[in-house]
Amino acid sequence: ITKDSVERKCFIKTEHTTYKVGKSLTELKEMSLGSLSQTHRACLINEKRVRKIDRTNKLIVFDTGDTVDLLSKKYKKELV
After folding, report:
1. DSSP letter string over 5-24?
2. If you write DSSP's letter for every residue of 35-75 in order, what string do you get?
């Protein structure tokens, strides 16, 4: 889930499609009941779908092959 600062919407990317929602990252994290982890001020991930976390290059690789480069110093300590 990423936050777009221009549209002020969150984009939830799944295996098949991307959804645009008008909720904040905080609201979405609370709704997930702890199944999402924050990696950046503008990104939440499902750690169960993570294949690899490259902390040096600040890159997260998912089991689908998708990557995201939203890994900040502040949040990377929280990740397993």
Report:
1. TTTTEEEEE-SS-EEEESS-
2. --EEEETTEEE-GGGEEEEETTTTEEEETTS-EE----HHH
Taking a C-beta distance cutoff of 8 angstroms, is the pair 34, 47 a contact? no
Nearest Cα to 27, choosing from 15, 12, 47, 13?
Answer: 12
Residue 80 pLDDT > 80:
no
47-58: pLDDT as tens digits: 999 999 998 999
Q: Which amino acid is at 16?
A: H
Residue 35 and residue 31: Cα distance in Å, rounded? 9
